[in-house]
Amino acid sequence: NRLQLLPNTSGARDASEAVRLAQISREMGGGSWVKLEVTPDPVYLLPDPVETLQATQELVKDGFTVLPYMHADPVLALRLQDAGAATVMPLGSPIGSNQGIKTEESIRIIIEQARVPVVVDAGLGAPSHAARAMEMGADAVLVNTALAVSADPAMAGLAFARATTAGR
Length: 168
What we know:
Blueprint: H1 15-30, E1 33-36, H2 49-61, E2 65-70, H3 74-82, E3 89-90, H4 104-113, E4 119-121, H5 127-136, E5 140-142, H6 145-148, H7 153-167
Parallel strand pairs: 1-2, 2-3, 4-5
């Protein structure tokens, strides 16, 4: 099967909530892969670096493959890798903002130092944003809001896929 569902801890306000959500998902058959999101502020959905690191440590110890959403902070990226994260997912700009990559220099450093794949996540509102992330050396991008609000999500998805390929 080419598809794998990726449970997400979206809505978790701290590490304990995120760990509990991941464990419940695994118990329900969701597997041991988890996109970790710890966002105490329900308005801006910015990730909490301390709680994200703590949850990563706990989940890795519990056998999870952790894909953490994080600020574009090179030091945090290294610490998450040291904790066993399977990837790091720095935000390009706030979730849902469609502003593109506002954290370019920090993401460059993260990519340069990475020992795991780097997935640029959040804020990518146009295919050109995805192409730029790939040109910078990202391994992948995660796009949500731009597709969800598009008048033609299938066409938008195709445009993002082509831009991602073009940026390689």
